[in-house]
Amino acid sequence: MKEKIRIASGQGFWGDLITAPYDQVFGGKIDYLIMDYLAEVTMSILQKQKNKNPELGYARDIPELMKTILPECKKRNIKIITNGGGVNPIACAKAVIEIAKNLSIENLKVAVVIGDDIKDRIDEIISEGCYLNNMETDEPITIIKDRILSANVYFGAFPIVEALQQNADIVITGRTTDTGLTLAPMIYEFGWGKNDYDLLAAGTVAGHILECGAQASGGNFLGNWKSIPNLAEIGFPIAEAFPNGEIIITKHENTGGKVSFETVTEQLLYEIGNPKNYITPDCVADFTSIKLEDLGNDRVRVYDVKGFPETEFYKVSCSYSDGYSASATLTYSWPEALTKAKAADEILRKRLEKLKLQFDEIRTEYIGYNACHGPLAKKLNEEDINEIVLRVAVRSKDYYSVERFGKEIAPLILTGPPSVTGFAGGRPKPSEVVAYWPALIPKNLVDYQIKIFEV
Questions:
Q1: Counting Cβ atoms within 10 Å, is residue 274 exposed (0-12), middle (13-18) or buried (19+)?
Q2: Taking residues 173-185, what's their average pLDDT?
Q3: CA atoms of 196 and 186, how far apart (whole Å)
Q4: Which of 67, 58, 77 is nearest to 101 (CA)?
């Protein structure tokens, strides 16, 4: 058993800093590089890509990235774990294998975790008595079944552990929990068992800290953000993990950003519900038990985490088509910029009403005034405002109504208030609204498989 392992975060989402994995690999010693590419909406985007081309459906940044880091990872035995396989992890693995062949890399084993995609099994699952009821409304999935775009189960760490036990150099998964990517190497290296709930909870907490990339090392920091040095060269976080469940969060030396009690605490509060019951497929972690110690020099100790048995369910993330939307902007300048923008919005709404168009929602924002804080926005002296961007968005089940809305924006330029600019790119076009459907499924209705590709 190793005395400790260093697990480096390389991506917090698909579209994150593209140089981060390279910097983590070449910036110092690490044992694992984990890359989290997936969000709920990402799965629907990837599914659409796969529908158009069966060879797509994964994070296409991965093959290009492998060209730069794979030789070094192979040389130093750095294992790579990513959920960037999306809805087509096998195609992703084949692309990585092709890169390895082109680089003349030998004895490389890529493991793929599949089974999370249940889109084609919905009828079968319903026949088993599981209606995938919406976790928020309790409605059965049957009411949107014909509009489902993607449906994926959140697997946890243990499928990845099994892949590592088969000596995989790279593990590519579909919809795996963000925390599972970090927890899996600890289970594998330290021999933690499925009933070691405190240890599993500690690894889960470490995964939660790493899952959003540099958000734990000073990025997007809500505290004294001006104190964060050199954000242009921010170092992504690294978890030093120990067999007893203690974790030290740090980053490579001579990189920007900051790892401190405050940055780690802020990330711990990100996207949690009941802090005593942080539910994952592997365990339930008690975030109220977490203890932190700032060791200085960009090192924060995380310890004494408590955990409890996992639930009998997996979470399911579904996306479905829910109509159409479009948005448009116009910019109004001083004087009376806000007054002009409000008048333009009123004119537009009256014209849409006269056309008898059907909308589920019309939303107006005045960017530069209330787009972030809405009704809580501080009242300003309109004479002090240099310019306002009027943004109007509509949503409807009726395609024609959304399309017709797009034809009413340009006319405001010559038939509305003066001092307007900023209209470019032609009429706004309707785009599909993708809605989210969270559900639970008994674990006995889903199983995973491991496929191995070698070169």
A1: exposed
A2: 97
A3: 12
A4: 67
* DSSP β-ladder status, 32-35 and 79-82: parallel
Strand partners, 6: 240
- Please name the residue that has the structure tokens 């079944």: 145
Give SS3 for 374.
Answer: helix
158-165 and 178-190 helices cross at what angle (nearest 10)? 40
pTM over 0.90: yes
- Whole-number Å distance between alpha carbons of 104 and 150: 37
Asked whether 133 and 142 are in contact (CB, 8 A), the reply is: no
The rounded distance, in Å, linking the Cα atoms of 23 and 20 is 5
* CATH code given to domain 318-437: 3.30.70
Give the DSSP H/E element, type plus range, for residue 316: strand 313-333
pLDDT band, very low/low/confident/very high, at 384 (cuts 50, 70, 90): confident
Q: Report d(CA 33, CA 83) in Å as an integer.
A: 12
* Region(s) of the chain under CATH 3.30.70: 318-437
Strand pairing partners for 94? none
For residue 335, whether the previous peptide bond is cis, meaning omega lies within 30 degrees of 0, is yes
Cα separation, 209 vs 421, whole angstroms = 44
